[in-house]
Every structure is written in structure tokens, then in C-alpha cells.
Amino acid sequence: MNIQSLILGILNFGDATGYEIKKHSTEGAFSFFVDISYGSIYPTLSRLEAEGLVDGRSESQSGKPDKKVYSITDRGREEFVRMLNVVPQTDKFKSEFLLITMCAGICTPETIREAIDKQIGDTRQVLQIIKDMQQGCDHPATQWVTNYGIHVKEAALNYLTENRETLLQLAGSEMNLKSAAE
Amino acid sequence: MNIQSLILGILNFGDATGYEIKKHSTEGAFSFFVDISYGSIYPTLSRLEAEGLVDGRSESQSGKPDKKVYSITDRGREEFVRMLNVVPQTDKFKSEFLLITMCAGICTPETIREAIDKQIGDTRQVLQIIKDMQQGCDHPATQWVTNYGIHVKEAALNYLTENRETLLQLAGSEMNLKSAAE
DNA sequence: TTGATATATATCAAAATGGCATATGTTTGT
DNA sequence: ACAAACATATGCCATTTTGATATATATCAA
Q1: Strand C reaches within 7 A of the A92 CB
Q2: What is the pLDDT of residues B89-142, one digit of tens each?
Q3: Quick one: which of A14, A32, A31 has its CA closest to A22?
Q4: Cβ(B6)–Cβ(B33) under 8 Å?
């Protein structure tokens, strides 16, 4: 799946500016689907408008700079449905935290403490985003997705908090030579 | 974190060729850390060798093309440790499956069935990779990481299998206009 | 009144991907 | 026996994407 699909998907749930699309796709409800950045959002929106898949209307605002609000067209919706009906790519999951954790033996205890506490904080934050999403929307399919997220993230949070101490005890355990020399 | 760190990290656990690094980072134990492709592995290995952080030795093999086996140097190990001791970036998780699921109402039942069954299969496969990883290595920090993975992935698998039917019933529920027209 | 934060769009160098080319061996199906 | 498919192994490069920056304005707090 590509950037085009995500943009059509976001616009399918409601009108938005390029700026709002960026926010949705990095912070909000749509941040679990595809990666996206300004450098790809604005050119893609222009192309989609030229192809008639979205409509853009300029709105001048008192004070703030003009914004261009995009909405999906019927042809855009058709195109989006066509794109949805393909076999999805396998999920991508990348974690620096796990690399650091796997190398806990050669890290300082402070590094490991910071890393696990950041991870616990991040997980709590994601859980909160998902719970907000769930309360703000009674769309059944969205409920299914948010319940999935809550289920998985709570499992992660449980493991992290219950095994924090065990991990901390592993920190630096493979640096015996170094610490002896110092 | 960057490609350089991942390569040093992989070589820190054992020597490897560029080809093997790619395999590790997309299929194996190291596939949960950073994204990587041939187009970045080979140039990075050359640069790391020029900087003295890795050693490359050519090995001619009967039949197969020559391979260049890289190993990490002491300076490379130092550099790797330095890179590990920074605050990690937040985990990245991207899922086309969730986008399709959230749009189940405008997808065909076949699309949704394929998507959920693929997701269940993918999750089982990842679980298997993690379990193999756990059995093949008694390094304590690796055990901590694999237990985390198993914990989280089993939670995901439970939700997916227990809520498969509920999701299937949502498929196509927002296409009433279309189906009436056909 | 200065600095930080938020809204809003846009550009562009640098990084990275993903597909292709090359070469050869092994396995599998017919 | 033969072809096709797959695995090992390195490398290139057009296109895509990022990530940082520029521009402009408003608000709010210190």
C-alpha cells in the first residue's frame, strides 16, 4: 500500500488539510497504517487533485495562513475501495528499544533504565490514544480495531512493568573486563 | 538509530556476509529493529571497512560466487556501544491490515476473510521465529526480548482468532446502496 | 517582549528503497 | 533428462521518501 491509499483513507473519514493529514498520520487514529511526511503529502495531494480523486478548496482564515481543505470525490472513493481489496502487506514493526534491550549486557544501567521507562511511557501513551479513539467513535469496525490495539498494548505494558527489575539486573553484566580495568 | 548501528549490532553477535545481514534483518532474529536493504547494506559495509569499524575478508567458495565475510573490530564494538547508549526512538508499527479492517464496511467479505486469515498466519509465523530464536540461544537479554515478543504476539493471536467471526460479520455492511443497485 | 508552541504550506539535498543485472549451484517437478 | 524455481552472493541506480528547513502568522506564558 502507498501514500495515496492512506490519504484517500483519511479523507474517506472526513475532510482535511495537508497539515491535518500529517497530524492524523503521525499522532492520531491513522498513525498505525503507513508512514508519511510533508514531502510526500503535498505532492501526492496535488497529483490526486489533478486526477480528480480529491477536491481542494482554499479557505482564507482570519489571521492564520490560508488553508486548502481537501475532500474525497466519488471517483476517489471508488479508487480507494479498489485499493483496499488487495491482500495486505505484512505488518511492519521496528523497535530500537529491543535492540538496546538485547544488548543490555554491554549497556550502562542508566541507559537501560531510561530505555525501559521510555518504553513504558510510550506504551501508556499509545494506549491512551487508542482509548480516546474508541470513545470518540462508535463505528463498529473502528471498535474492533481499537479493541485489538488495547488488547495487544495492555499485554505489552504488563510484561514491561512486571519484568522491569529483571531487565535492570542484566544491564552491564557483559562488561566485566572493562569495569575491572577501570 | 541508523543502518550502521544495526549492521554493527548484527556483527557483534557473529560474523556475516552482506547477504546474511540482509537475511537476518528481514527474516530472522534481527528483523524487529531497523529496516534495511541491499542498496544500503553494501555501501555501508564498504564505508565501515574504510573507517576500520569492521574487517572484511574474501572467501572463495567452490562453485558459489566469492563471499566477503565481515567481522566487527574492537573500534567497531566501541562505536556500537556508544550508539546504544542514547535514548531510543519510539517504536514504529505500521499495519495495512488495520486500515483494511477499519474499512471492513466497504470491503467485500472475501477481502476481509483473506486479510484476517493472512494476519493470523503472519502472527503465527512471527511467533515461530521468536520461539526458534529463544531455543537457539541462552543469552539472558535475548531471553528477555523473546519472552516479551511471545507475550505480545500471543495476545494478538488470541484476539484475532477469538474475534474473527465478529469481524467477518462487519464486512460489506456499509455497501447497502451499492448492493441495492446491483 | 521574548521565546515557545501551534497552524499551514512548500522545497530540496540526502538517504533509502526496491527492482534489476549478473553469475552459479541445488532442488524440485514433470 | 530437462526445465523451472529457488538459494547464494554482490552490486547498481532510478525513483521514492525522508527529514530538515524556510516562510508566515497567531497565541500564550514567563
Answers
A1: no
A2: 889 999 999 999 999 999 999 999 999 999 999 999 999 989 988 998 889 999
A3: A31
A4: yes
Contacts of B81 in chain A (CB under 8 A): 106-107
Interatomic CA–C1' length for residue A7 and nucleotide D7, angstroms = 39
Cβ neighbours of A179 in B, within 8 Å: none
**N residues, chain A:** 182
Measured between CA atoms, the residue of chain B closest to residue A99 is: B33
Per-residue pLDDT tens for B139-180?
999 999 999 999 999 999 999 999 999 999 999 888 765 444
> Residue B5 corresponds to which cell in the numbers above?
548501528
Give CA–CA dist A20/B182, Å, rounded: 36
The answer to whether the C-beta of B65 is closer than 7 A to strand C is yes
User: Rounded to whole angstroms, how far apart are CA atoms A6 and A76?
Assistant: 12
Closest C-alpha to A113, from A158, A166, A152: A166
pLDDT tens digits, one per residue of B3-33: 999 999 999 999 999 999 999 998 888 999 9
Report residue B41 as a C-alpha cell: 547494506
Contact B53, B72 (CB under 8 A): yes
- What HEC string does A89-127 produce? CCCEEECHHHHHHHCHHHCCHHHHHHHHHHHHHHHHHHH
Q: Is the CB of A39 under 7 A from strand D?
A: yes
Taking phi over 0 as left and psi of -120 to 50 as alpha, with beta for the rest, B54 belongs to beta
